[in-house]
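Hello Y.,

Per our agreement to keep a running log of every chain we model this quarter, I'm adding this entry. I've kept the format consistent with earlier entries: sequence first, then predicted structure.
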Amino acid sequence: MAAGKELLGSYKPKMVHAGDYPVVTGTGTVADGSTIPGLMPVVLGADGKLSPVTASTVTDVYGIAADGAEAGEEMVIYLTGQFFGDALELPEDVTASGLKAPLRKIGIFLEDTENKTGTADKAQETGEK
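Predicted structure for the entry above:
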């Protein structure tokens, strides 16, 4: 390695956008007690705050988190667009294919959803615990 240069790490780009459908973003505040990772589908609570989607709230999906945020923080969310299902971060009880129809109703379209499962299944596939 040349003098004055250091290895800063690696970069593994993730293909997120699957087409040229118009992308509209908005902002919202993360609900108390919630942490939302980037690219996690979110729901808007009665209090006007965002929480990660769960199996029981899939039909109420509001958008997709652009970046991660903690409770009380403001975050950017995708309100429309075309995304790869395998790019999403999902809880273990939610699948991209199960989100395809509810997201379509709000102007978000998913591609390649048949192989994407929640994080528990992903851990099994990669041998993680």
